[in-house]
Design brief:
The protein is mainly α. Helices cover about 65% and strands about 5% of the residues. It is built from six helices and two strands. Strands 1-2 form a two-stranded parallel sheet. α3 packs antiparallel against α4 and α3 runs antiparallel to α5.
Length: about 180
């Protein structure tokens, strides 16, 4: 029985040992791409502008509430109701603004998709070319949340992908820790 199980393990393990793998660091690659940096700056600027607008709206809302509280004792029942409704409306407007700009389907998400996806597609295409050129079966992205407890540096294909994209692999005065070969 043990011989049979050992033979099965050997049969299953044989094709696995023939697979070639590599890995990249997409954070490093993207960080060296001017078009990615430009897109990220546009997104950051847009987000900062919208955040400032939201802060301004919040300040106006806070002031409305303070004014209401200060004058509440002098207001008639109708005036109180009108002011409270105005405050609630402003709160809803602020919430809607934040959702429209920063929500899961908001403008920032859509702009990120519009600006960043073409750059990511370009990296993906370069990864495909490197994998085919080097006969690799798998390339993992160690920056993409894939947990790697150990990776032999000889399988790092970050610099090959950078070369495929025309990105310099050496910073002035330094040398890469691995050329991937």
């Amino acid at each position: 029985m043990k011989q049979w199980m050992l033979a099965m393990v050997a049969v299953v393990a044989l094709p696995l040992s023939a697979q070639k793998t590599g890995f990249i660091d997409s954070d490093l690659i993207l960080g060296k791409m001017p078009e990615y940096k430009s897109a990220q700056k546009q997104l950051d600027d847009m987000a900062a502008k919208w955040q400032q607008e939201a802060s301004d709206m919040q300040l106006r809302l806070d002031q409305m509430y303070k004014d209401y509280k200060a004058e509440e004792v002098l207001l008639t029942a109708d005036q109180k109701r009108n002011r409270e409704e105005a405050i609630v409306t402003k709160e809803k407007d602020l919430f809607k603004f934040r959702e429209d700009k920063f929500g899961q389907t908001g403008e920032l998400f859509k702009k990120r998709e519009e600006y960043i996806k073409p750059v990511q597609d370009k990296v993906y295409d370069a990864v495909q070319k490197v994998a085919k050129k080097e006969g690799l079966d798998f390339i993992f992205d160690k920056a993409g949340g894939a947990l790697m407890m150990y990776a032999n540096a000889k399988y790092d294909k970050t610099f090959e992908v950078m070369e495929e994209l025309g990105i310099p692999t050496e910073a002035p005065g330094t040398t890469p820790t691995n050329s991937g070969k």
